[in-house]
User: Fold this.
Amino acid sequence: MFQEGLILYYNDFRFKNGSDSKSKYFIVLKRIDSMLILATLPSSKDFVPSVWQDYDHHTCIELAEFNFNCFFIKPQSAVTTTGWGFPLPTFLYGSQIDAYDEAILYDIYPVEGIDYDIIGQLKPELLGLIKDCFRSSASVKRKFRRIL
Assistant:
């Protein structure tokens, strides 16, 4: 089920680090093998250093002097093949990419429509831009850059 480019929405996402659970989007960046996926958790929180001002289109933000990388998605802009867009400005931070065991996700969130919703499939060209952004960043963990 967790194919590359899939956007899911979890009603009560439980973070690996033990932080309080909350509603969260989840984007599958890459399948590593049959049961492991590489994903990012988009955020509406803007942690971009103030030297960056260009928020008028989807873009990779790479600020090597700050060891900072993220991909910005403009709000209400169609990002899926069905035309869905994030309701708020959305940031995909390279430092927050992580690997997830598919079996554990299925165990914690077993029921589509209750535990999670499938939002849609990212447009292939946008998925490619996001992967390129993370793949070329020194601030993304080396093992994840190789996977991408």
